[in-house]
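Exercise 7b. Backbone tokens:
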């Protein structure tokens, strides 16, 4: 999997002190073991648990060219965090993933390999193909996720099996073009960006992943986010 490209990993954070050092260590290990050029851009929404302090220690360890910290004044939404991170990314490709260890960096080489072999514009991790799955969710959480994807598949016909997933690799130029027209700011952002990318003719590949529920901290998914997702789904159904 030799490559001369640079990969920028965008990690939005809010109160991820217990997770950020581990996920950064795993990312550094994954990239350096394969001699892949990379940077990790951490977009922190004014965490109250000293996440930023931990990141600054990581900068001292790995270098500020590898670990880039971008601070925001408060919780401004997942979508805008990615927009902010993208503005500060120098890579040819952008990887988005959760900072809570739900997405294991071990899948990134497979994302890169799939993109190189197929030439696709986007690679998205999927929980809903053979060898994919989830670990640590209760029945209610699984039902919500399956229901959200079923609604999206029925109303939008997106051509991917996991529309709500948030572990992806993009050509940076493609993400910049698509994200300019995305209106969603929260969890519906993931859904909208794939739908709009497909509508604009960009190709999407899929790689099976196992999503593992967070070990530390509290999930950011709540009733408000679910309502926002449903509103975003209906809006996309009407406008695309």
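Sequence design result:
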């Amino acid at each position: 999997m030799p490559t001369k490209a640079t990969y920028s990993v965008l990690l939005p954070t809010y109160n991820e002190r217990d997770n950020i050092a581990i996920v950064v260590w795993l990312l550094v290990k994954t990239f350096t073991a394969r001699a892949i050029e990379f940077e990790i851009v951490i977009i922190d929404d004014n965490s109250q648990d000293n996440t930023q302090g931990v990141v600054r220690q990581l900068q001292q360890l790995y270098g500020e060219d590898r670990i880039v910290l971008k601070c925001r004044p408060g919780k401004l939404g997942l979508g805008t965090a990615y927009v902010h991170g993208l503005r500060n990314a120098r890579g040819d490709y952008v990887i988005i993933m959760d900072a809570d260890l739900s997405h294991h960096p071990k899948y990134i080489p497979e994302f890169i390999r799939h993109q190189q072999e197929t030439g696709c514009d986007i690679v998205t991790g999927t929980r809903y193909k053979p060898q994919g799955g989830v670990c640590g969710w209760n029945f209610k959480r699984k039902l919500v996720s399956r229901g959200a994807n079923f609604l999206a598949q029925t109303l939008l016909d997106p051509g991917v099996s996991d529309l709500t997933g948030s572990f992806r690799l993009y050509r940076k130029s493609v993400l910049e073009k698509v994200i300019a027209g995305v209106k969603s700011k929260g969890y519906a952002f993931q859904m909208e960006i794939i739908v709009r990318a497909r509508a604009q003719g960009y190709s999407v590949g899929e790689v099976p992943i196992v999503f593992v529920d967070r070990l530390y901290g509290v999930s950011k998914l709540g009733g408000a986010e679910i309502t926002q997702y449903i509103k975003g789904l209906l809006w996309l159904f009407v406008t695309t």
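Instructor comment: The chain is about 45% helix and 20% strand. The two ends are 37 Å apart (CA to CA).
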